[in-house]
Write a structure and sequence with these properties.
Strand content: over 45%
Helix content: 10-25%
Radius of gyration: 17 Å
Strand order of the largest sheet: 1-2-7-4-3-10
Length: 139
């Protein structure tokens, strides 16, 4: 195999090894799709509350999540969405592929595509923490 033919495979391996690669998972039910978007660097907010912005309609809404966590995570997976009263509960798992963890706080990002969001939902939580909603929640 020549180097030119191997280039796409080498690029895929290199992208998989970086800390900020994205990973998409499909789901069923309320959560249609989850995508881990990676680390965006240091968390620069005064509050440690996650932030959520949304677009779309209740039939198909995209939620972009910014949330703080310890530095050193380079993988995000197992996206989940559920309803608890008036709260949309978004969850995903952060993991490290073996690198060192740090005492600093980093900003992690994820995207959730949710379908058939109930009318009474007015709040969002991310990994158990109430999120600040940036802009309007989908209507």
């Amino acid at each position: 195999m020549n180097l030119l033919a191997a280039a796409p495979a080498l690029l895929a391996v290199a992208l998989t090894m970086t800390a900020c690669t994205s990973r998409t998972e499909t789901g069923t039910g309320l959560l249609r799709e989850f995508e881990y978007l990676g680390c965006a660097g240091d968390w620069d907010e005064d509050t440690l509350a996650p932030e959520v912005s949304s677009t779309g309609t209740r039939e198909a809404a995209t939620f972009l999540v910014r949330n703080p966590a310890s530095c050193g995570f380079d993988q995000g997976s197992d996206g989940r969405a559920g309803i608890d009263g008036d709260t949309l509960k978004l969850r995903y798992t952060l993991a490290s592929s073996g690198g060192d963890m740090a005492a600093c706080i980093c900003e992690y990002r994820a995207r959730f595509l949710v379908s058939d969001l109930p009318e009474g939902v007015t709040k969002v939580s991310v990994n158990g923490d109430e999120a600040r909603i940036k802009g309007e929640l989908v209507r």
